[in-house]
Design brief:
This protein is of the alpha+beta class. The chain has one domain: Alpha-Beta Complex (Creatine Amidinohydrolase). The chain is built from four helices and 14 strands. The strands form four sheets. A five-stranded antiparallel sheet has the order 7-6-8-13-14. A hairpin with a 2-residue loop joins strand 4 and strand 5. Helix 1 runs antiparallel to helix 2 and helix 3 runs antiparallel to helix 4. The radius of gyration is 17 Å and the shape is globular. About 50% of the residues are buried.
Length: about 270
């Protein structure tokens, strides 16, 4: 069942979204060569607790995964792209890090992700991140009232293909609101003018992700971390978006980064 939100409810989601956007920007800044992933995780735990927010990841137990997720972030490095389990790993020069988080505040949830490069970037990694950000911007632009869900999926896939990347259809975006994962599923590939109608009040997480040289994935033994099947690098971008009578509204917009490093400006920060 899909729940359409009122303008007031979207405003309450935007409160959670603002916090998510601000914390993701903060975490992107502290991610540096020599930083342990667990230090980033514990920094986020402190900030979430201080805000009185609730992590949507803690104790999350979907059909995949091995046991409940006992972290507040997904931290995916290099060939890991989704659901990266924070662990004792020290970031190295040139690592590509994707940070994904979702929190609830006063019963309303927002979800977002950003990919950054630690240290000196490889131009191919910059291109990969840029592709996810441009695809995210295209998906957001396609979330117009009266349009179709397939418009979003087709826009994302068109960008991925234009950059030379294959597009995985297994994991994509999702509805969001009172909980982190609601209907509908928002695929990263599809046909324009097909699928459910995009009516005002629909709130979704749009999240394109690409691997450099494959669309196939594999799982780590932890049951959570998803990697490119061929070991190629990966990137992931995501925003929570509301469909409104005036057009799409990004609820997890991030403050501009202090230093350009691939930037997330293509997706409206």
């Amino acid at each position: 069942m899909i729940e359409f939100k009122s303008a007031e409810e979207i405003g309450r989601m935007a409160v959670a979204g603002q916090f998510v956007g601000e914390l993701l920007a903060e975490l992107s800044e502290i991610a540096a060569v020599g930083m342990n992933l667990m230090d980033i995780e514990h920094h986020a735990r402190r900030r979430i607790s201080e805000r009185g927010a609730v992590s949507c990841y803690w104790d999350y137990s979907p059909s995949f995964g091995r046991g409940p997720f006992r972290n507040v972030l997904c931290l995916s490095v290099n060939d890991a792209v989704l659901h990266g389990l924070p662990h004792d790993y020290v970031l190295r020069d040139g690592d590509l890090l994707s940070i994904d988080m979702a929190v609830g505040i006063d019963g309303w949830v927002a979800d977002s992700a950003v990919s950054v490069i630690v240290g000196v970037p490889d131009p191919a990694d910059l291109k990969l991140i840029e592709a996810t950000e441009v695809a995210l911007a295209a998906g957001i632009a396609a979330a117009q009232p009266g349009g179709r869900l397939g418009d979003i999926s087709a826009a994302i896939a068109d960008v991925g293909h234009s950059y030379g990347y294959e597009v995985n259809a297994e994991f994509g975006g999702h509805g969001i609101g009172r909980t982190m994962h609601e209907a509908p599923h928002v695929p990263n590939i599809g046909r324009a003018r097909r699928g459910m109608r995009l009516d005002p009040g629909l709130t979704i997480a749009i999240e394109p992700w690409f691997c450099r040289t494959t669309d196939k994935i594999k799982y780590d033994k932890d049951g959570w971390t998803i990697r490119s099947a061929d070991g190629s690098r990966t990137a992931h971008s995501e925003h929570t978006v509301a469909v409104t009578p005036a057009g799409p509204q990004v609820l997890t917009r991030r403050p501009a980064r202090k230093e350009p490093a691939g930037t997330d400006s293509a997706a409206g920060s």
